[in-house]
Amino acid sequence: MELYSHPYKLKSRDVNRFERLRPSQLFELMQEAATEHSELLGAGIREIRTRNLMWVLVRQYVEITRMPRYGEEVMIETWPTKTVHSLYPRFYRILSQSGETLIASSAIWTLADMKERVLVPASRSGVDFGFEARGCEIALPSPIRRFETDRSVDFTVPFSYIDMNGHMNNTRYLDLADNLCPAAQEGREPKRIRVEYAAELLCGREYTLHYAWDGKRFLLNAGDEKSLFRISEEY
Question: Which of 24, 76, 141, 162 is placed for a possible disulfide with 61 were both Cys, Cβ 3.0 to 4.6 Å?
């Protein structure tokens, strides 16, 4: 099954105070769709754990026409394209009931050894997708360039943010951004989101978050000499 799709009606837990889909929940919906599709493709969590492997998100890029609203029913689509060494490109679309593309996204996933926490190439993992592109894909996420920030705050990773892989789940990084970004708190919708994950954030550890806001772009990262993650949101 090259394409996986399923309908979803937004619930109260999915939206913010402005009744629009929260970015963190958007990433969670896409993550769950990818997880369910991987199960159907024989590369689900239980299957790869028998080989001591885990799925890890490296980068993701999102283009937003508009965020769905509370109570709205949408169609979530996802599909992978050809594996490139240890990288697994995957694409997503969220469609309105009329078929309008509300959100399009691209991501690069990889498989890592659960014990050693190192990338595992397809030749060793046994997971190798060979699907051709469908022709409606947006560009794959490119690296986020290093940027300057002028504000910082300390953050300790709570237990509730930890997922089955033992680190802070990728979706929770978007909550960090919402909690610091003035535009999010004013109810503005991001038009483009880029996220880059370079290292794990672990339970109970304290990290310094560095951020900046220029009225149009919000930037967030952690790490000084070496970046742990980076987020760029354009409004």
Answer: 141
